[in-house]
Amino acid sequence: LSDIDALLAKADAIKVDTLDATSLEAMVLSLEKKITKNQFLRTKYPDQPQRFMESELELDEEIKRLTELAAVPELYPTFVELGAVGSLLGLLAHDNVDVALEVVELLSELTDVEEGEDSEGVVALVDALVEGDGLSALVQTIQRFNEAVEAEAKGVHSVLSVFENLIEIKPELTAPLLVSAGLLPYLLRRVRVRSAEGVRLFCSELLSSALQEEEAVVDALGDVKGEDGVDALLQSVAQWRKRDPSSPEEEECCENLFNCLCTAMLRREHQHRFRRGEGVELVVRMLREKGYTLHCAVKTLAYAVADNAACCKRVVEAGGLKVLFPVLMGKSVTKHVKKGWVSREVLEEHVTTTLSHLLLHCRGEQRQRLLGKFLEKDYQKTDRLVELHLAYLDRVRAAGAEAEAAGVPTQALHTVTGTVQFMAPECAREGVPYGRPADVWGLGMCVVEMATGRPAWPDPGTALFKLCCTEEPPPGGRWARGRGAASPAGGGLFTLQRVDVALGALCEDKLLRNRVLLKLHEQGGEPLAVVAVLHEYASTLAAAGSGDEEAASRAKSQRARLAELMEAVAGSKVPLDGEEGGSG
């Protein structure tokens, strides 16, 4: 113990100079001198490396010294005023790649600030980097590095860290970085390369986050330097069509890239690109292989067919029915659930979403083939939908009973009240009554809008779809990245709605309607319960369509279709809220 005390006393006696404005100015001046000296010797002796090598080592050491600044972010404005940022950016193009490596390592240190540290100083540094065209310079630098060289592979990771730090400090830099500065083509290219798994994972995280956060990045996928970005994403996930990811890192990368595809397909034009790029055929093949990507493929199909008749038709033509129905029946998913890759509830949500859209949008021969699946084997698939309806209806009713026992009006479980963009997922999806957790969520969404100048999801229809149909968190910083950020679907109300949409569509066929009503009667169910769920769903769409004119038109069309489904189940017209005879 005495030896330890002696060492501590000795350490306390060592004088450590604290970096201040004066010493920082001296360091920057020394850096400038080293840069000038190195440039002079390189120009004078271009073919004699031994003549300028020493100056290069001195320059390298001078850059390393500046890492002390990372501990004193309040001095960043002084660092900017001294013009040091421009000098560092100039060194990114230095002929000696080792110098560029030291610069990116320094920038990674300087921009990696802890919560609560001087934010004004950090913002000043970031603004100087942007004004000095640092985003483009860093994108050019990362493409310069050769990942086959260990030091340069580390440099790639450092540049990606700088990008991540910049976006966390100023989220509004996401679109300029990926679109204007050209990072998007690099990320799309890099995620297709099976090497340096850590780098590929990092790229997939940045890409997934950027697509969630910025509509401009989603727009840019249509033409990425002459390449179709959706097709590039399809190529990146195609590597898992016959094999499973070999590590947890590769699993997370796989999930991220499928999330990129799903986010892209919230746009109709990207759904069409997915179809033209044979994306439907790819995910159908993955479903047939029954490997790790089965749950990713089911989810991706749910996004691809959403209100898209052309994609629905392609699913049937590509043999998708043969692989979707085993998922519905639970026959091909046992391994995935046991290994914890996905929950059975998430699979049920995505497969019923897909089937409900197929039933709504398929026509002619495709519709007959689809209905034929529900007729075959003594109505086995139809009976399964009735079984799911009853199971999820019980869940929703149980939630209502718990709420009533807690003194919360049951009506709160079934009414969508408020602005959709600020609604908590459990309120939109599961009908959970409003309370403190929902208020915290709403406050968080207000903070997002105050920080970024716009709602996380400006379009009410998109907001409702994201809350109810996806596992994606709102756009944000690091917390919104990676597989761990996504919460399980687990609710019940949304899946119940999709199941009952499918049952309503089946009831438009006389034989299938008779079977649905028979099985409901045998198992103690009521057709009016299906009608009630569809009616509440229509009310939810009315709330979602209260925003812009396009959203209102889309909601009106969807409500009209739901009215047809209710009539098919009930055998007579069921007025919607706001119509004569409706509940208002």
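the 2nd protein, sequnce then structure:
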Amino acid sequence: MTTAAPTPSQQQQLAPLSAQTSLKRSRILFDTSSSSSINNTNTTAQTTTTTPLAAATQAFVPPLFDSQLHQQTIKRKIRLQYPSEYSKLAFQAEENEVDAEGGEKQQRKETATARAVREIRKEALDRLRSGEDYVEAGGDTSDVVGAEGRLVIHREVDMKSSVMRNNHGDVGLGGALIVSGSNNTTAFSGPNSTTTTEQQQQKGQPIRSGGILVKRDDDSNTTIPTPKWHAPWKLSTVLSSHLGWVRSVAFDPHNTMFATGGNDRVIKIFDLAKACVASPDALKITLTGHISPVRGLAFSERHPYLFSAGEDKLVKCWDLETNQVIRHYHGHLSGVFALKLHPTLDLLVTGGRDAVARVWDMRTKHQVHCLTGHDNTVGALLTKGTDPQIVTGSYDSTIKLWDLAAGKCMTTLTHHKKSVRALAMPSYENTFISGAADSLKKWVGSDGRFVKSFTGHKGVINAMAVNDDGVLLSGADDGSMNFWDYNTGHCFQQSMTVAQPGSLDAENGIFAAEFDLTGTRLITCEADKTIKIWKEDEHASELTHPIDMKNWRKKCIAEAKKRY
């Protein structure tokens, strides 16, 4: 005997009945508050008022009759659902007693799951009030009790497409049950749902209180790194010695003196200790010999030599014992904009306007390699003791990593959209950072893998420097200076340099910057013909200059949606 298929109208009538039957069956299976729930199925289904919270918690875990084991199971599932946010949870208090008609208070009937979740909430609330979890997350204990947020309880896979009805007749489609702690609002949230308190009031829906775990408002799975606190930097000394823009700076290996070169075509060597206190005899010697601005300087770690490069296409080696030029390196076809020494080999690397980087033997003056491949000026260089041993940044907005033994390019990085004018590398890890007018980008030093972007510095980045404490400086041509935490990319200070009296506001640019070997002094070479020495504010502390975690969290969530 064959049975006729139901018509579309019959299917529409059977759909809600099937959903109600499924919900009745789930209440029978998951209700552990009564031992006679199976025998009194019809009575229980009619008289028991199942709230959305109870229905979600019943669907969250199966019932267990061992209360301690049940509580541990729920806690484990919560940790699995929210692995990175568990330490940041704030908790909402809930009344366990309701007023009866006669004025007396009676205990609310609750399932084993709701009771276990309430105990977990109470335990975690005590921990948060004591400041244990919140301080570990980098917050302030004063904000714990007044924290606002919400919790999202994701239902089981087989419940995502089902229709959930409560005793008020509200319908919640597949998604999650959201319990808000700030406005006592409970709502169902799906992929396209944006139910709020005002929308519920406009629709005439009742606003119900209650809930369990309350998560902070940053509704994201993004891991927020905790930045290290750094003291702000302030101006200490201003040296006015050059007669033109100061374009380059270098420290000697013993950290006793530093050299600067500028558009006045001279190189000046200062005593660091005397310069930090603005002593009149801080200038030790002035070297003349270039006929164009001096764009690059470097001290040798194994020899008493100072190397200089200028826009006159000349690369010179100065003997600091006699203060005379002892070698010239000829080969560049145009101005030389960058100069670096190899940390372990007697090699000299220069880059310039002829779009090539040349590797020189320091002793024989012979050119070892001519690294070709860039389409524009090579404006920044890095040298390392491990492969790739040479990194070049060019005005064609690319960065190239070179194999020094073969003299060939290993990798080309094309992430920047503007000219790469600065490169910096810390001494404690194999990474480096590049600076351009669009952003700063951090890379893995071994293979050039992209790590993250440091955004927020608007300007043409001419100089960058990083010390051993993880403080990164980026200086721009408009005089803006940003101080970053190198490990996380958090900008903890934004400041503007001040042009010396008598200079134009347009001469407020930074061309070069370098930390001394201790990392406690910073020297910037600027367009107002001055050399400025900066130091940390010794009176600053984490209380006077706290980390702005709120804006940092927002920035991390916004940048997580971008690719680069």
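Residues 200 and 491 are 41 Å apart (CA to CA). Residues 8-30 form the longest helix (23 residues).
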